[in-house]
Design brief:
The protein is mostly helical. Helices cover about 80% and strands about 0% of the residues. This is CLASP N-terminal domain-containing protein.
Length: about 250
């Protein structure tokens, strides 16, 4: 028992040192970045939740501080974090989502987008697809549809958006539909969506988007009938009657 505790304490101390080095001597880490990331990532799946959380937070710090220098590690680190989104206690899931969010903000956007489409969108786990869909939408909004249309991954993105827009989970569907709505504003993406989806599926997605838009509009603009009813209920004082004309 004592050895296990000592081992955990040493590992947590090591993670703290890595964070300190990233903040003050990042050049030391950059020389052995692959080795460092592999060591930290190996602790993410620790059965000890506290140690796992510390390792996840350390990866978040590395993304935040080293930024695009972490591009080379995205393919190794992101799948491990995505795995923790479904296969861990809720607070660990939250930490993994936060670390992925930092990754998306700090590394080269197309690098993050590629790993999310390859490892997140295609996952069989609902929580992973939801997390990937939300982050993917944020990237589409940030990069812009016009710029994305000129990238080699445009076709993959169109297919991913169409797939997410039909997901069994409501939130994931919402993120996917928002992406489809944005992509349809670009002629190339519109064509790619038509190619990757059946006519029936695309029409179904468009119907859902239109229906949601109408519901939102209805929520923002209450009907006249409801306004009248609300005003009538709110008026307490009796109204003065007009004098009759004789």
């Amino acid at each position: 028992m004592g050895l296990c505790l000592r081992d955990r304490e040493l590992k947590e101390k090591g993670l703290c040192i890595i964070k300190q080095l990233a903040e003050s001597h990042s050049e030391v880490l950059l020389c052995r970045l692959r080795e460092v990331c592999l060591a930290v990532t190996s602790e993410v799946s620790s059965l000890r939740s506290k140690l796992s959380c510390s390792a996840i937070a350390t990866l978040g710090e590395l993304f935040a501080i080293l930024r695009k220098d972490m591009d080379s590690e995205v393919d190794e680190v992101a799948p491990v974090l995505l795995h923790m989104v479904w296969n861990s206690p809720e607070f660990v899931q939250k930490a993994a989502c936060q670390a992925l969010g930092i990754m998306v903000q700090k590394v080269t956007p197309t690098r993050a987008m590629t790993v999310l489409m390859d490892k997140g969108v295609k996952s069989r786990y609902v929580q992973v697809r939801k997390c990937a869909a939300e982050l993917l939408l944020s990237l589409v909004e940030r990069i812009g549809v016009t710029k994305l249309a000129g990238t080699p991954r445009a076709e993959t993105l169109a297919h991913a958006a169409g797939t997410l827009a039909q997901d069994c989970h409501q939130d994931t569907r919402h993120y996917g539909q928002e992406m489809v709505k944005m992509l349809l504003n670009n002629a190339k993406f519109k064509k790619l969506l038509e190619q990757s989806l059946s006519t029936h599926d695309l029409e179904d997605i468009l119907t859902r988007i239109k229906k949601k838009g109408m519901e939102n509009q209805k929520g923002e603009h209450p009907s006249v009938k409801n306004l009248v009813k609300k005003r009538s209920a709110g008026s307490k004082k009796p109204q003065a009657t007009l004098p009759s004309s004789n």
